[in-house]
Amino acid sequence: MTRVRAAGASTRLRRVLASGLAAAALLSGLPAAAQDAAFRDRLPEDEVVYFMLPDRFENGDPSNDRGGLEGDRLVTGFDPTHKGFYLGGDLAGLIQRLDYIQGLGATAIWLGPIYQNKPVQGPPGNESAGYHGYWITDFTRVDPHFGTNAEMEAFVTAAHARGIKVYLDIITNHTADVIRYRECYQAPCAYRSRADYPYQRRGGPDGPAINPGFLGDGPAHQTAENFARLTDPSYAYTPFVPEAEVGVKVPAWLNDPVLYHNRGDSDWRGPETVTMGDFAGLDDLMTENPRVVQGFIDIFGEWIDRFGVDGFRVDTAKHVNPEFWQAFVPAMQARAAARGIPNFQIFGEVYEFQPGALARFTRVDSYPSVLDFAFQGAAVEVFARGGATDVLERLYFQDPVYAGGTEAARRLQTFLGNHDMGRFARFVREARPDASPDEVLRRVELAHVLLMTGRGSPVIYSGDEQGFVGDGGDQDAREPLFPSQVAVYNDNVLLGTDATAAEANFDTDAPLYRLIASLAAVRRAEPALARGDQVVRASQDGAGVFAFSRRLDGVETLVVLNTAETPFEGAIEVEVGSDRWRSLAGTCVPTSQAPGSVRVSLGPLDYLICTTRDAA
Predict the structure, then answer these.
(1) In a domain, 263, yes or no
(2) Is position 25 within any domain?
(3) Number of domain units in the chain
(4) Which DSSP letter does residue 113 get?
(5) CATH number at residue 548
(6) 36: pLDDT confidence band, cut at 50, 70 and 90?
(7) Helix H segments across 254-386?
(8) Which residues 6+ apart lie within 8 Å of 249 measured at CB?
(9) Which of 37, 80, 417, 517 could hold 424 in an S-S bridge, CB 3.0 to 4.6 Å?
(10) pTM above 0.90, yes or no
């Protein structure tokens, strides 16, 4: 099928292509030694991260589609026609498509979990597969649907050869659903609290005594000596493992039910149930136990030692007690340093939309960084719903709350959508059902300009660069880039093209791919856009202009976005010494109007990027 780009896209793209692609050419021409030094020395905020679920990227080896299993989809997990099962993507396909990822300007790949999963789980008639990687049974090996440990080594080696870092998605909160409870074997198990079901009695406060001398799970008692007294896990429910799954978890210590909370499903209503309840039925580990802490230090330390990965994204971080992270994070940083890996990045998934709630995990739990859900929420409000741009000003005003202040905020992983909540383009379409395809594309483009130029390390969700929109969150936002056989994916209308998900979508001429690639090149060429401090220059209490400067080493880079459907013309405050300007995108006036003031003219839903670096 012939691909057709949206009419309004090409003009805007030309503004960044000249400077952006020229910068990319200069960087690719570096001597090998210089490239290697740049790779080692990059800071977390320097990275442009590309996130994908390996099952949904590229199928390079169809022989592993069934993971070495024989039978129907309820055995193998493979059904290329169903959005909830394995579709066939693997590490071999990822290696084959590294050119595509590098061409986008990504400098790091966040790889969705690749550990061996329980192939299929769920209630009869509503089963789905572990294609997403979050139902782990063996934490030590690559799932056979994705390839082998040797292929993982080959992937990391190939990525590093291109100067691309590799971040692994890791899980310590839970394993696959293996443990059952006798009291509710065929039904959901409601959460049973510590107050109603203390560790020292079976079945409630009036039940028979068990676990004598156990002092509880609070921070003061998280010692091996205390947890040695916790030998009977039947305080709330009576856990057991079905015969067919006995010993299925690796390493072997994960098979002991006493190392799990066994209190039933979380109801998400408070810190106890959030950290101790089963996440949608998944076996919730007792991360207060020093045995569990050391076990995961050993597991993921080995992934650093063996594969030389450059960082971790931590799944369900808010569902684990702070003391676990206070031990785990520095242990991983030390392991990476011993392996000769500088700037090892660890960022947690904390599903909170207020900066204060996110910052708590940097201050109490000792996370170096977190995914910036607050940024995501603000971007939806402004660019999709047309909210006031002072929403963005209030977001950035709160940057000092993070441990390390505004410098730490520059290390946050910013993003617009993901595999759980859905794609940003869908948020725009839902907010503006009557908008033309061109308007939707322009709003998505504007959001990506902020993502790529504002503070933080930008994360691109695989498929966004091809104009994927999706029908919702979770499975509805997990289309493959290789040809899909899933009907609910193939009827989607993509942005900026008449292509469909039924064909391969690795088009390097797609409007959003070209835009992101060009902005990434500008970002690399202008260090202030990654490492510079950020100053908001203009925002409005009604939808309209948003302007900010990034400043580094005496260079000021100004970004102005017009989120309104009407033109904007006016003066923007800048540094008094910033009197000459050079355009990186859009039309910038060559000289400031007066000391500390520059004149800006923008069309509807348009933007410009100007810098004082090398301005004539």
Answers:
(1) yes
(2) no
(3) 2
(4) P
(5) 2.60.40.1180
(6) low
(7) 271-276, 290-307, 322-338, 355-363, 373-379
(8) 137, 138, 175, 176, 178, 255
(9) 417
(10) yes
